[in-house]
């Protein structure tokens, strides 16, 4: 989805993108096209709601 939507979100001046999948919290600097960009959005991934696997050890 990022590859197909990134240009649209960047031009719409989106500040934050919340998404779910990984069973951990991740926060990055503002990113556009895989590189730090002061105008790009911040991606926040959270997916531990309903996680039954337990804590990641690696």
TrEMBL record:
It comes from the Eukaryota. GO terms for molecular function: acid phosphatase activity. Keywords: Signal. The keyword rRNA-binding does not apply. InterPro entries: Metallo-depent_PP-like, PAPs-like. This is Putative Acid phosphatase. It comes from Lupinus albus (White lupine). The lineage of its organism: Eukaryota, Viridiplantae, Streptophyta, Embryophyta, Tracheophyta.
């Amino acid at each position: 989805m990022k590859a197909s939507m990134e240009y649209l979100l960047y031009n719409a001046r989106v500040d934050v993108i919340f998404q779910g999948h990984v069973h951990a919290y991740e926060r990055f600097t503002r990113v556009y096209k895989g590189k730090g960009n002061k105008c790009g959005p911040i991606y926040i991934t959270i997916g531990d709601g309903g996680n039954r696997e337990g804590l990641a050890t690696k």
